[in-house]
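We modelled the chain as a single entity of 302 amino acids. Its sequence is:
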Amino acid sequence: MKKIDSEQFRVKPGKKVKLDKWRTLVKPVYDSKEEAAVMLAAHQQKLSAQQNLLYASDSYSLLLIFQAMDAAGKDSTIAHVMSGVNPQGCQVYSFKHPSAEEIDHDFLWRTTRCLPERGRIGIFNRSYYEEVLVVRVHPEILHGQNLPPALVNEKSIWKERFKSMRQLEDHLSRNGTKILKFFLHISKDEQRKRFLERIDRPEKNWKFGVEDIKERGFWDTYMRAYEECLSSTSSKAAPWYIVPADDKQTMQLIVSKTILDAIKSLKISYPTVTPERQQELQSVRSQLVQEKSGIEIRNERV
């Protein structure tokens, strides 16, 4: 099995991103589909163990953010990578069009309410980054957010929002939330193939809508928005990872390995048992052993 170096996909702080320089397809990290399945299963097993450790230590939380163009595989990646995790320790939120209540608050409000508690993993399928992506591509959305006109300056508002996001993520990091952000980097041609598959296969028709093809028409504008977003908001506290997405199995293995590396870096351990607690446990153990002995004696008499 090949080693996966997650660092090669990380956007270094201050690095100017040009997405045409980042590959959407790399040499597979596996030799066969069967080996890929074995590798992912091993990652899932390790992630399950690490999630139990994260939950038991109750000190850190983990926030995973997924952004991508349509059909890049956000849903399937979340499902496959996290399939071994205890649902009680993991929360997944998908953010679509904001409600009237959400529009009446600042743009970070609806996602801030969903941040994971200590010991848990939170997953954002799309996130507050939509506010500098789809909103930037479609400025009419911005003008429908009821902001005071004096605060809506399209020349500066995106930089202001980048600053708010960085400050939020720095704050969360200082308070024990480990943040990983994944941009699943799909090519325009691969998206075309996956759209055709969704149209041609009846069981996948529900995944495709007319709005998907309309958004595809803004591809170049989205790429420019993503480039500035990734360049402006990848930090030591909350790095972006640009993950090649044309091969789903390689993508899932890179994502799962990156998550494993991140939790391991926290150097957490199970809570230490104090001498007093150990004495208490031994006392309870003695009671349970005596109870078993009593049951066996009664059974012999019967």
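As a brief sanity check on the tokenised model: The first strand starts at residue 61 and ends at 68. The CA atoms of residues 198 and 205 lie 5 Å apart.
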